């Protein structure tokens, strides 16, 4: 009988210890989960964003990733002069229109296009390209350009920390597209092809 009581007491003690250990582990697991949930998510360095506007019945949409200056020299530094740039970060920037546009006296048929530039000190080359779905400029091919033209950048004292596109409405049939980053802004007009 003494042996039976001793086995019973030993079993209860072991079960009690196991139960306390399990509760302690559950408590620690809950604390770890709570601590992980309290940690704020890190913001991406080049957040994905877009710019769009209605000009008359034309919907113009620009989709891009917006890198920050973060104290760096951008044009002539991070983005080298006289080199093709995808005009954003990561995937190539793209522009989509549901109406034909006239840009630089050329017709851009409705559709979706890659938007590339070649920055330089004096002027920028703008390229609107058939291949909109590509990483960076890896697959850029000049032969796929639908429209190619030059613009003169304006330099400002004001710093634009994150790359920013705007589609500006001028009238029911005219608008402009601008890109601003660091102290540089480029802008070009377009018309809705009636």
From TrEMBL:
Q: Which Pfam families match?
A: DUF2911
**In which domain of life is the source organism classified?**
Bacteria
- Region annotation (Disordered) ranges: 21-48
Designated name of the protein:
DUF2911 domain-containing protein
Report the source organism: Flaviramulus multivorans
């Amino acid at each position: 009988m003494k042996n039976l009581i001793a086995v019973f007491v030993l079993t209860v003690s072991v079960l009690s210890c196991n139960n306390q250990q399990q509760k302690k582990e559950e408590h620690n697991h809950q604390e770890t989960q709570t601590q992980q949930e309290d940690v704020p998510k890190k913001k991406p360095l080049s957040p994905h964003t877009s710019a769009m506007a209605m000009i008359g019945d034309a919907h113009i949409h620009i989709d891009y990733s917006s890198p920050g200056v973060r104290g760096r020299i951008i044009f002539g530094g991070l983005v080298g002069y006289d080199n093709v740039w995808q005009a954003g970060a990561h995937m190539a920037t793209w522009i989509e229109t549901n109406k034909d546009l006239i840009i630089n006296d050329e017709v851009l048929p409705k559709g979706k296009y890659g938007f590339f530039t070649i920055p330089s000190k004096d002027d920028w080359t703008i390229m609107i390209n058939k291949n909109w779905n590509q990483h960076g400029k890896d697959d850029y091919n000049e032969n796929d350009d639908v429209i190619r033209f030059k613009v003169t950048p304006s330099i400002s004292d004001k710093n634009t920390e994150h790359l920013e596109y705007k589609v500006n409405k001028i009238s029911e049939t005219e608008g402009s597209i601008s890109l601003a980053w660091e102290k540089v802004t480029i802008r070009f007009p377009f018309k809705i092809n009636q």
